[in-house]
Each structure stands twice: as C-alpha cells, then as structure tokens.
Amino acid sequence: MSPILSVEHVGVRFGGLVAIADLHFDVREGEIVSLIGPNGAGKTTAFNVMTGFLKPSQGEVRFRGTGLTGLPSHEITRLGLARTFQRTSVFPDDTVFDNVMIGLHRKGAQASRAPLFDALIGRAGAAERRLRARAEELLDWVGLSERSQEKAGALAYGEQRLVGVALALATEPAMLLLDEPVSGMNASETQVFVRLIRQIRERGVTILLVEHDMPMVMEVSDRIVVLNYGRLIAEGPPAGIRSDPAVIEAYLGQGSAARRAAAEAQEPADA
C-alpha cells in the first residue's frame, strides 16, 4: 500500500524550545495508526502541523503527494484530510443535526460552481434534500439519530465526541485524524468507539489517532508510532511496541499513571 500521508523530517521550535525534532513516518492507505507518547511528547503539535494550524520550522508533510506547508486548514480539509480535537469540536448552541449539516453544506458549496443557476432550475431544493438525508445517515451511523434535534452542547461528553466525528465525516475525508477520541469515556463507551473506528476504516477512510488509553491503542491499531520529547523512539505493530525497551523506559519515567499505562500495554491483548 502506498503512503497517503508522509511526515518528512518535521521539526517545530518555539523560541529555544524544541517541540518536535526530525519526525518522520508514513501512514499507508487503509491503515489505523496510533501516535502515542507521554504527556508533552509532541503528539498534538504534530497533528497541528499536519492540519495547517501550525507551520513547521523544518521539513514537510505530504498528503497524497501534495505538500501541506503553508496551506490553510480549510484547504487541507478540502483535499480530504479531516480531524477532531482534544476538546469536543462541536457547535454547542446548534442542534446535533445542524452540526452535521454545517459540514455537509461546506462540502456541497465546494462542489457547486453555480449555486444561483442551480437554484433557478430547481436543483437547489433537491441538493438540500440529499444533504439532509446524508446527515440523517451519518447520525444513525454514530448512534445519535434519536438525539438529532437536541442542542449539541447539552449532550454527554462521549456523545459530543461522536457528533465531532460525524461532523468530520461530513466533509467526506480520505483520512481522519482523531485527537484523544476516547478521553473521558468509560469502558463501554470506549468499546463502542473502537467499533466505530473499524467501521470508518471499512468505508475506506484511513485513520491516524492520538490516544493515551493503551489497551484501546493496542486493540485497534495496525501500527503504532511512539514519540518522546518530540522525537521518534519506536514504530511498529502493537506486539513489538508492547515490549520495546525504549517505549517502556519512556513511560516508566513519567510517574505512577504512566507506569500503569506501560504495564497495561505489556498485558496480552485478550487479558
């Protein structure tokens, strides 16, 4: 499989602080790849570079062969690279349904070159009906069809995460970046999300995710990329990462919470 995303020796500096140093890895079409590391390792900084929220000090990110450096985030989304955020990325005062329609209207506006002409010949109404049907389909897919007319901000945290995913999927991405998608979820909510991630991949969407839930990462990932202090320290399948000495050392040096995460990562997948 060819790379859909290539991170080519990317570095990010904030004054004298090196946030990322010489980061390089590929994500191939159809993969689920996790980007992990202790707090402060540079994971979200890397996401921000990939999606146009931050310009790298050196290096390049390429999506389907196109360099992304200097492109605004909305242009990167138009190319087919969408993301969610650590905090819930919803419009809280709009309904769940309208949140998804926002993403669909943006995609529809990009696809239409003559909206006034479309309206004059009666196509606008048909296009709107198609968008509404697609919004209903997406909400049913993430399990929120019964909550569609509620304010997004009134939903539980885990449900807002699902709205954010539906909003991102409304842009019809070829690749989806998920930033700590199961943070704050309980075990049953996490398993629902794991199934959703697999369903998204089955629909042809490549996935890169940042996550601290190590059992979930080990369960869902095809490959794992590990950062520590902004540097790549390991890359490979879950079985290899689970026992990698550099990964264990990185987590063991981060306090009791990280020690528990490292211990969980070494447990068998069916434990």
CATH architecture of the largest domain: 3-Layer(aba) Sandwich
Beginning-to-end CA distance, first to last residue = 31 Å
* Beta-strand percentage range: 15-25%
CATH superfamily of the largest domain: P-loop containing nucleotide triphosphate hydrolases
DSSP strand count: 10
Sheet with the most strands, sense and barrel status: 6 strands, mixed
The CATH class designation of the largest domain is Alpha Beta
Task: Give the overall shape, derived from the CA principal axes.
Answer: globular
**Helix/strand/pairing category:** alpha/beta
Radius of gyration equals: 19 Å
Order of helices and strands: EEEHEEHEHHHHEHEHEEHHH
The parts where pLDDT drops under 50 for at least 5 residues are 109-114, 255-259
- Kindly identify the CATH topology of the largest domain: Rossmann fold
Helix content: 40-55%
How confident is the prediction overall: mean pLDDT? 85
- Strands of the widest sheet, in order across it, are 6-7-8-3-9-10
Alpha plus pi helix count: 11
What would you note in describing this structure?
The chain starts with a strand and ends in a 5-residue tail after the last helix. It folds into two domains: about 170 residues, P-loop containing nucleotide triphosphate hydrolases (Rossmann fold, 3-Layer(aba) Sandwich); about 70 residues, no CATH class. Helix 3 crosses helix 5, helix 3 runs parallel beside helix 6 and helix 10 runs antiparallel to helix 11. The protein has eleven helices and ten strands. About 5% of the residues have low confidence. The longest helix is centred in the middle third of the chain and has 19 residues. Strands 6-7-8-3-9-10 form a six-stranded mixed β-sheet, with helices on both faces. Strands 2-1-4-5 form a four-stranded antiparallel β-sheet, with helices on one face. The chain has about 270 residues and is α/β, with parallel strands linked by helices. Helix content is about 45%, strand content about 25%. Helix 7 links the parallel strand 7 and strand 8.
